Each structure stands twice: as structure tokens, then as C-alpha cells.
Amino acid sequence: MFQGSLLDGTDESGPRSLRAARRTLLEHGAWVDVLPGWIPNADALFERLLTSVPWRAERRRMYDKVVDVPRLLAFYDEEAALPDPVLDEAKAALDEHYAEELGEPFRTAGLCLYRDGRDSVAWHGDTIGRGATHDTMVAILSVGTPRSLLLRPRGGGPAIRRDLGHGDLIVMGGSCQRTWEHAIPKSARVAGPRISVQFRPRGVR
After folding, report:
1. Phi/psi of residue 166, nearest 5 degrees
2. Which domain CATH number covers 119?
3. Model's pTM, two decimal places?
């Protein structure tokens, strides 16, 4: 498991500047911003989230049976305090950097714990709510063991791979949620856990 203090190796504890994020333009008005190592000492943040977040298992109906969701979940709505002050700093930095482009703050945080390479999430877009009809943004902070996030045009096509972990940030914007899909596939090569934190505006799930 990861070890260390938040301050080990650097005086920085909060997110680095978002000005270094690199944007990739996709088809159909979608784009992604990527910033590796956005959160310094992210392994310490991972350890705190692993122990402080009230992780829960869920079951969902799939076709004719109910199955376990292959990851653990937690959700913090607009009124809930985030589980770590670094996440408050991250949200504030995202709100400031994307204020003009997004036109509103990020409101909620959904957390996923991928315990090992057997945990995953299938192809999907965040299209419950406004994401189905309007341009929006979803910002994902990844801590822990890197996992591959895949993106592909909705309906199929060549996939783009981004390996995310250890404090990396990806922001999916424009039409990305309704014209593209993303997934975290299972991996026999991954043994360690990963936590993703998804910041979303109001009405986007």
C-alpha cells in the first residue's frame, strides 16, 4: 500500500497550476484537458481517502439478474463536506480556472475505488441530466495505481487511451459526455488500487 506524509518530498500540498493542462480536441465538439501530477504527494491523499471515505458496495440489475457493481462508491452532493481539504482546494482551483468556459461551479463529487484490476466501469457517458443535451464538463482526479481510461466516439470507433493515477487530472469538456464514451477496462496487469474523484456541475450525472 502507499506510504508517506502529505508533505514528504515537497512543500506543496494543494493542486498545482492548471495553466499547464494540455488540451486535445476530439471530434463533434468534444475535448479533453490532461495534467499529469496535478496533486503533489497524491499517494498520501490516496491513503487518507481510502480510510476516511465511507465506501459502499452496490448491486444493479443487468438484463435478467442483479449483479455486484465492480467497484466501491461514495457520493458527496452540494450540501456535503468533502472528505479531505485537498479536495476542497482542487474543486476551488477547477472552479476558478474553468469559470468563464463552464459558466458555473462544480457542485458534486463522486468517488470510485477500484480495488484491483478486476474492478472496472463499462463504456458510458455521464448523460443522466443535462449532459445528455448540453455541453458540460466532468473533471476526474486519479490517485493510486494508474489505470487506463479509454475514450471512443459514441457508437464505436478507435479508442484513445490515457493512463491516470498518482494525482493526474483529466477534464472532459464540450460535447464529450453525449458524443463520446469512456471506460476503465479490467486489467490482468494491475494489482494495486486506484481512487477516482469526479467533480461535476449541478444536474450532471
Report:
1. 55, 40
2. 2.60.120.590
3. 0.91
